[in-house]
Amino acid sequence: MKPSSLGDVFDRQARAAFVLPSVLIILAFSIFPLLVSAYLSLVRFQIAPGGYTLHFVGWSNYRKLLFGSEQFHFLGTFGEVGALEWTLIGAAALWLLAAFVRYLRGGAWSLAGLAGRLLATAGLLAVAVLCAYTTGGAGRLGSFTVTLFYVTAGVAAQFLIGLGLAYLCTLPVRGRWFFRMVFFLPLMVTPVGIAYMFRMIADTTVGPLAPVWNAVGLRQISWAADPWLARIVVVIGDTWQWVPFMFIVLLAALESQPRDQIEAAQLDGAGGWRIFRDITWPSIAPVAASVVLIRLIEAFKIVDLPNVLTNGGPGIATESMTLHSFIAWRTLDLGGSAAVAYMLFFASTICCVSFFHFVVRAARRAQGA
Amino acid sequence: MKPLRRLLAARRLDELAPAQKFVVYAPLLAWTAIVLFPLYWVIVTSLKEPIDVADGPYYIPFVDFRPSLHAWKYIFFDLGRDTLRPYLNSVIVSSAATLVAVLIGAMAAYGLARMEYRPSVGSVLLFVAAIALAALMSFWGGVDWRLALLAGLAIFAIALRMLGRRFRRRLANHDILFWVISQRILPPVVTAIPIYLMFKELGLLDTHSALIITYATVNLPIVVWLMYDFFCAVPRELEESAQIDGASRLRIFFDVALALVRPGLVATSLLVLILCWNEYLLALFLSTVEAQTMPLLVAAQNATRGPQWWYMSVLIIIMILPVIALTLLLQRFITKGLLVGAIKG
Amino acid sequence: MKENAPRLLSKSVTLDGVGKSFGEVRVLRNLVLEAQPGEFLVLLGESGCGKTTALRIIAGLETASEGRVWIGEQDVTDRLPKERDVAMVFQSYALYPHKTVAQNIAYPLVVRRVPEAEVAARVKEVAQSVQLGQLLERYPRQLSGGQRQRVALARAIVRRPSVFLMDEPLSNLDAKLRGHMRAELKHMQYRLGVTTIYVTHDQVEAMTLAHRVALLDKGVLQQLDTPARIYSDPANLFVAGFIGSPPMNFLKGRLADGAFEAPGVRVPAADRSRQARVVMGVRPEDCTLADPAGGQLRGQVYSIELIGDHTLVTVLVGEQEVVVKAANTFEARMGDTVALRVNAGRVYFFDADSGARIR
């Protein structure tokens, strides 16, 4: 036995050698930039003769976004809030309070758990109030609220459509292979391409649907000039692309559940809906929660669709946070750009971690996994 | 009553009643149309003269309008090199990034699945502090970054020698795994500016290497996550047998472990490849001319002379085709591989 | 199999106080045993008794929490598996599915950089000796269970190691093939003369294959002895109950007045001292049915099972069951009262609390 061969040298250090490349790359190109970004979000960037200078300005960049001159861009313009909205917010607050009390009375609470729940609750309520203010009356959405709209509307639509199609495909239908192949296609199309595709399709004068618009007398409507219509077109494009992802994962989950349980329920005389609710849904809930989490994580990063589809317009109506940050960078406002990026980071982390704790974990626990 | 009952009830369990058939097939076919129609429209548009587009919707070539290959000619011959370069850039960048990400990601996943890691919290913090010190030295102190890095590592080694025994709290494999996977939550725009500045310092802006290393980093968490599940699903005995037979760890990894997870490996590679191929934002930050990738070229079509749908359609098609071809080619791996990770969640 | 294969250089294996804990769970305690060069040693026990852990510690796949492991004259406790010169056959065979039979067998040689020509020659020779000559280009999935088993064996033999380790190598075969492979294994071990440590939960395998059997329970060695002595001279209640099929009968009672007494039982035991809580053990073949007058045990027939060459009769004595191996001509009806006699020289007494043998 020659202890000096290369393989042996590697063997002695094997553990480190396997993991270190990944860890170092992440440290260098993920963690280190993250720290630099944190610093950048606290400075003002200025071109100076022969280079640039950085002035430390503290929280000023964030203050501008939340309360100052950039508030309209980030949070939105505030309108009036009606009684209905206040009632809804009050109901949400009560519901959250009840969940909180239940948690405390459950006995098994910890400091970290309490802090996490406080943060999640506060975030949720703040977002609810924000939404009420920016949608009511003369209110307009900012990039933060627009991103939230993309995330919630997009992921919800993708999940529901994906689940529905997957469920239909588990029924005895012909051509399942064909459906599966076709439904998979949009995942392979580059998002930039999708944006152009939907610009063509949504054109009300020369697009393929023009006869339809003509017939219903909407030929003159320009969706690109209407904030909500433009946002909805963005969500439609995003949904078109990501339904396949939900579809294949949920289909696999549906197909992998044991047949005998369903057959037993059929013998017991349960109908289709009951079987789905009592047997199928609980068994796929953990997968469903995971796949929604994955989409949530990715959905916060949306940028290509709004940028190409509408260029963020009309005005700033379809700007996502990533796009907002990118535009700030383009105008050499490095500090502002980093601040927006960091706000996105916070929002997406809080949202995803909360979702993981309160939905994914709960779904797994319910299944005993 | 009889026809109604026949409409509502199937005779056998594996058959649908006529009424059910409609309820089931209608949405499936509708979604098929929704998926296929935009793709069809792109293909048709690529065959239109500008006038056919501007004059309102024409649907069927040869019937509604006379198809022409002018757009294809323009992209392939008139633009020629200007199309080819981004295309080659995309091919090089995405395949190299995929290779790097899958190779080191699979190694990390294998290590985490098969070996025990117990780094102490203290030493990890110490390492980060040492590196941060090195960064500060080079940033404000004006020290050459290579020198600063070396100094930082030296400080880390010395400090670890002195303090190493005092660290008690330790991390376990799942902590490391979670840390790696959680990197995926990080929006790329947060790291984009520092990475831009970093590559600017290194003089690597608008080069393949900058894009490759960045794409590899961004996709590393996906690789580690999926491959970890694949490795966990492989029986240990095969590797133990190789171990007794005298194979080194590295040899076992390449000879045995990787061969056993091949379906998963192929599926993961394909996924990462597609993500790199379509990536837009980071390319926007890091490349301008020389390293410009296809998504940028497609996106840029709008800016210059207004939307020229026919050219765009050609570009979109030549971007989609290789992906579809690859997917069809590797289909049997995907059905086997891609789902395992996601299913286990 | 060819008879002129070279006998290998064989080494002893010594475990010196080996223990293993996984977290809080101690799966192995202070295991001391030594396998002589060329010996066939079987580690026997139920699943979870620590026998596989012991084998994996010898292989180097687990590290012992305490104690030392010696192979030959060398302390290998801290050595890597590949430095120990052992070969192992796994329960699942652990064949590489992506390699052909020839590549599977050659692998241990290839990783040790044996010259190509020699590899080919040795693979061929070994394959012939286990009758795999025709199958060298097949893949494992194209082989039957018995053939896969042979490939695993061939891969172990080809290296000419000084110790074989086998982890339940026959448990994935069907009953008929298992009997056949048992005989082949025994012959191969005899022919090669390599020290073999063999883990199984099957007492028939242990009794037929082993030179000596080490019986483990809950991580503790119960007895290490030849199969014959383990059967005829069990060290304690566990060993007595584990070995033998149908198992030994146990009757709870007391030793008093020169006899063992229990409801319906009085067996003379003149040389024993008095003791209140005792278990008497007697094997089914050491009981005979007697005429009602002279019986030492009296009870009712509970069930009768004709096996073929004999009949198993279960008799309810008091509230305890006794199984008797009777002639296949035995006839009785359920519920009949019968009397039994035991072979006085083949009766064992155990302490009911500690399980230790009372000699």
Outline the structure in words.
The complex is a heterotrimer of chains A (369), B (345) and C (359). Chain A is mainly α and 369 residues long. Chain A has a domain at 61-78 and 139-368: MetI-like fold. Chain A is built from 16 helices and four strands. Chain A has helices spanning 6-12, 14-40, 60-66, 71-74, 83-105, 111-135, 143-170, 176-184, 191-202, 210-215, 227-256, 259-267, 272-299, 304-309, 321-330, 334-367; strands at residues 43-48, 51-56, 76-77, 140-141. In chain A, the strands form two sheets. Chain A has a two-stranded antiparallel ribbon. In chain A, helix 7 (143-170) runs parallel beside helix 11. The model of chain A has no long low-confidence stretch (mean pLDDT 85). In chain B, helix 2 (18-46) packs across helix 16, helix 5 crosses helix 13 and helix 6 (121-139) packs antiparallel against helix 7. The two termini of chain B are 49 Å apart. The relative contact order of chain B is 0.11. In chain C, strand 1 (13-22) and strand 2 form a beta hairpin. Chains in contact: A-B, B-C. Chains A and B meet through helix 1, helix 2, helix 7, helix 8 and helix 9 of A and helix 2, helix 5, helix 6, helix 9 and helix 10 of B.
Describe the largest sheet of chain A: 2 strands, antiparallel
Tally the helices of chain B: 17
The whole-angstrom Rg of chain B is 27 Å
Compute the number of helices of chain A.
16
Q: What is the CATH level 1 assignment of the domain at 61-78 and 139-368 in chain A?
A: Mainly Alpha
Structural class of chain A: mainly alpha
What is the strand arrangement across the widest sheet of chain A?
1-2
Using the CA coordinates, give the radius of gyration of chain A: 25 Å
Helix content, binned percent of chain B: over 70%
Instruction: Briefly note the CATH topology name of the domain at 61-78 and 139-368 in chain A.
Output: MetI-like fold
Strand content of chain B: under 5%
Order of helices and strands of chain B: HHHHHHHHHHHHHHHHH
Write the CATH homologous superfamily of the domain at 61-78 and 139-368 in chain A. Answer: MetI-like
Query: Strand pairing plus helix content of chain B: what structural class?
Result: mainly alpha
Q: What does the overall shape of chain A look like?
A: globular
